[in-house]
Amino acid sequence: MSGQMWVWVVLAGLAVLLWAERAENSKVKAVAKPIASTAFIAEAVAFGAGTTRWGQVLLVALAFCWLGDVLLLSRKDKLFLGGLVAFLLGHVGYAVMFVMLGLDTTWLMGGGVFVLVVLPIVAKWVLPNVKGSMKGPVVAYMVVISAMVALAAGCAGHTDRLIFLVAAVMFFVSDLAVARDRFVSPGFPNRLWGLPLYYVAQILFAATPGSP
Fold this sequence. Notes:
single chain, globular
């Protein structure tokens, strides 16, 4: 099946997942979310990710995100922490991929300035609501995803793949929805905007091996 067709599978899975989130139907969520996440890995394969070393790193990053998606189906603290670690490793994978492709210093510095401005604002909003042993992993995650966004900017400037930066920023913003839902104000509205941003970001990452 073509990469474009897998995109439609991701979007269909996302639509069902949003319905299940709204209806609080855990059984449908447990099916729809893994299908949508498996589809973005299949999309990357269809677009030729396995044919290059950086594309193979992309597949590893997507696989860690898949694992994070499955673990975050539960709201139990241990599984949430496992999902957090899985996504952190996914972001490390994206960061390694960007470095492999090369970085533009000016764009990298611009991305660094952006995250240095935004990160303290996010930390001041989220961290007072994070309790106990969860605070350390949350801080580590925030640092890693911020570094990933900065590196995405550097890579976009070097390779003319602005899609990397767009996807990274969308991923960052989608994580704000996760943080709000988990630590600040739980509710379906968080997932209503966070999940589409997340899955579109993954669609964009998965499409990059085949993009011009």
